[in-house]
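Input record (one chain):
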Amino acid sequence: MIMKKLILSFFVISIFLLNGWSMERVSALTSAKAIVTASAFLTDQSADPSLKTDSITASTDTKDKPFDWKGLIIGLLFLGFYGYVIVWIVITLVTTKKILPVTKQEYINMRKLANKSETASDEENKQAFAYTEEAFDSWKVISGPGEEELRSPMTMAQIKKSKELHTKAVNIMPTDDETIDRVNEMGEVLNTNQKRSFSGSWKLIIVAVVATIIMFYLSKSKDESVLRWLKSFWIMPVGIILYYFASLAPAFLISKRERWFKGKNIHNALIGTIVGLFIATPATSTWVTSWSDGSKTKSHEINPFFIFMMILTFMVVIVVGFMIGLFAGLNFIRNYVVYV
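The corresponding structure, as predicted from the sequence alone:
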């Protein structure tokens, strides 16, 4: 729990610092623009003195400009956070092992290797069965009224606790058929509920890919290779990959969200609305003019609302492309830290 709070605090602090850094950059750019304007004004007044003044100003600005500690701290925070995200995702996906069923003969062989009797005692079988009952009682009822009671783990805490109880039951090495079946069923339920699958927005990924392609053609120079461009503009491609893996959610969490949100996704709704309005907006408007002689003529003009929607859609695509990394960070917290 402490680790979760630290990660959330780390992420929130980074966002606040980023906002502060952005405002500072805007202020710096505004100041720089004012200096350039003043220099141009002085140039109109006198050529030689202005050059000297501009030179002194530039020299003073270079000398007095403080080191950007805030930018360094923000960079380290984001590199640290997303580096930790990558490590945590890899460890989680690698260490999440499927629970394999164990047969009665395998338990007997295990007992022989442990120098125990081939058949487990009644107390051992009862204890192993009790562990499965303890886990089952902690799960949430998912069956309807009047139906056979079915339960399933609905939180990561229940998953972890149930895996511990399952390990204890297996370590007892029961040989009673009913107990063995119960332990194997418990393992299968845990496998089903902790299996991860993509729960993010494919539309968001598609839009981010489109934004990457647009930025490729807008920012890549003619003689620059693709690999060199990627070295200087890696944020979108890496953000897309990270978003996919950060959006891998366990099955129990996906089921919970389906009950809460009925399968709705805010990203899909936003993108679908903007793109849908753009597609539905006619590119031209048709005007029909009726003349006094009874004839009619048609004229076509560009629809100004279509131009507006095209610009808005373009802006949304670019913004989403740049923010894909932020969405990846949020999905990581939801799917790997707090499980909501």
